[in-house]
Design goal:
two-stranded antiparallel ribbon, 4-stranded mixed beta sheet
């Protein structure tokens, strides 16, 4: 469902902390980028992404295979809503980061476009470039530059 002038754009009116569960979940664009392994520079705190996806991520669907129990399967996985992750750990295109920073959602976001596939059609999702992390030890060899 795309937004219209008469449809409430809740993400522009409410802070993240006051979103309902349904609103919170609908804000996710389904790109899968948050499931990519990240590295943080110890000196300057810069976060870089790799093309290595969490082993729970279904790369084609860009969805977690064990979403509800993901933290039990992957202790380093952080529930964004519960842990209030710093925005710099999220991709620059992430709706949660954009809302936290007071920025608008991109036109390809499903809440704007009305199409769950628009994130993939825009080339924003990990579909097509991510690979499973399983068995990979040299994360630095897989660093990528995201938008």
């Amino acid at each position: 469902m795309s937004s219209s002038p008469t449809q409430e754009r809740f993400w522009e009116k409410k802070p993240l902390a006051s979103l309902s569960e349904a609103e919170w979940e609908s804000l996710c664009d389904g790109c899968g980028r948050c499931c990519l392994n990240k590295l943080e520079d110890e000196d300057d705190g810069e976060v870089v992404f790799t093309r290595l996806a969490c082993h729970l991520l279904d790369i084609e669907q860009c969805r977690c295979r064990h979403y509800e129990g993901r933290e039990a399967h992957v202790p380093s996985c952080l529930d964004l809503r519960r842990h209030r992750v710093e925005p710099h750990w999220l991709p620059a295109t992430c709706a949660y980061r954009l809302v936290a920073e007071g920025q608008p959602l991109f036109d390809w976001h499903p809440l704007i476009s009305g199409n769950r596939e628009s994130v993939h059609e825009a080339g924003i999702s990990v579909r097509g470039f991510a690979i499973p992390e399983t068995g990979i030890e040299d994360l630095e060899a897989h660093i990528i530059d995201l938008l």
